[in-house]
């Protein structure tokens, strides 16, 4: 498509300084075309990403980009994708997975034992290409084999981006996704061909993936553990608070919540959780 030629403003839009009127238009187009609610995401961060996308498609002003969004059918979905960051790794922050192994999972299994319950539900929200829920599955296979034979452990991975979920299902990764994975785990759970790491199907089948927008859809209840790491950081404070509150509703009594290393409990949600390990951002439903 031939884009309209507009006068270049040079107003700093390339640095993310998008005028409010244009930003409002972009916000409405994205909501209508993709369902993504920009209002809940940190504005400065979103604006910077829009500016990067504008540059990539050769638009010089925000209004030119609004026009592009309206006329290029695939662009709203493409922009939505660029606004959600998918960086992840297996064993991202290994010390967090060590705490899960040594403290959280044993506590969950012993609670199940006391309650005479057989089902345990673990949920990774904003799971990107599956690195996080698969890491949990590997830890369970390697250290909780007996518990796996006694309990029905379900691990869900959900994300707002349907394409990334397809990659999660395929479970094939580049070497950079494994650079925090202990060598023996890498040996045990992956096979490498032509530079790509394929996850062992026995680990793959322990995790189910589904689309879920945690800003719009209720979290299903009776969950024992929620991992929501490096997702809230992109949300505005009010959205963070309401998501944290909804986690308390979704967790069972005594259930655990793990946030990212730079995220924290805030506002009214503080009364709903007690810290278990501040450094690893692990909380337990109060
Ligand atoms: C930076 S990745 C974090 C991946 C993983 N949790 C980790 O810590 O390595 C953030 C993920 O959150 C997802 N995301 C962003 N907004 C979301 C929303 N409203 N609902 C569900 N997932 C969302 C993105 O698509 C992306 O895959």
Core attributes:
286 residues, alpha/beta, Chemotaxis Receptor Methyltransferase Cher, domain 1, Rossmann fold, 2 domains, 7-stranded mixed sheet, 3-stranded antiparallel sheet, binds S-adenosylmethionine
Per-chain topology:
Elements lengths: L19 H15 L8 H15 L4 H10 L3 H9 L10 H22 L3 E7 L5 H13 L1 H6 L1 E8 L2 H9 L1 E2 L9 H7 E4 L2 E4 L1 H4 L2 E5 L11 E6 L8 H14 E9 L13 E5 L4 E4 L1
Parallel strand pairs: 1-2, 1-7, 2-6, 7-8
Antiparallel strand pairs: 3-5, 4-5, 8-10, 9-10
Helix pairs in contact: 1-3, 1-4
Strand order of the largest sheet: 6-2-1-7-8-10-9
The amount of beta strand, in percent, is: 15-25%
Number of helices: 11
Determine the mean pLDDT: 92
* CATH topology assignment of the largest domain: Rossmann fold
Helicity range of the residues? 40-55%
């Amino acid at each position: 498509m031939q884009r309209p030629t507009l006068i270049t403003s040079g107003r700093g839009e390339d640095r993310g300084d998008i005028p409010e009127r244009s930003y409002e238009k972009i916000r409405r187009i994205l909501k209508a075309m993709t369902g993504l609610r920009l209002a809940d995401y940190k504005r400065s961060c979103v604006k910077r990403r829009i500016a990067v996308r504008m540059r990539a498609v050769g638009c010089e002003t925000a209004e030119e980009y609004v026009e592009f969004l309206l006329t290029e059918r695939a662009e709203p979905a493409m922009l939505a994708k660029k606004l959600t960051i998918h960086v992840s790794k297996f064993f991202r922050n290994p010390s967090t997975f060590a705490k899960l192994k040594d403290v959280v999972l044993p506590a969950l299994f012993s609670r199940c034992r006391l309650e005479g319950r057989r089902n345990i539900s673990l949920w990774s929200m904003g799971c990107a290409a599956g690195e996080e829920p698969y890491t949990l599955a590997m830890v369970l296979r390697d250290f909780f084999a007996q518990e796996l034979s006694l309990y029905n452990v379900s691990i869900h991975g959900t994300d707002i981006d349907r394409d990334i979920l397809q990659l999660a299902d395929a479970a094939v990764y580049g070497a950079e996704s494994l650079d925090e994975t202990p060598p023996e785990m890498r040996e045990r759970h992956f096979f490498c061909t032509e530079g790509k790491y394929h996850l062992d199907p026995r680990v793959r089948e322990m995790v189910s993936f589904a689309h879920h927008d945690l800003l719009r859809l209720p979290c299903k209840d009776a969950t024992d553990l929620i991992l929501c790491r490096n997702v809230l950081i992109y949300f505005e404070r009010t959205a963070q608070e309401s998501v944290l509150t909804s986690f308390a509703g979704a967790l069972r009594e005594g259930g655990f919540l793990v946030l990212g290393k730079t995220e924290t409990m805030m506002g009214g949600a503080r009364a709903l959780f007690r810290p278990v390990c501040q450094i690893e951002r692990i909380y337990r439903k109060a």
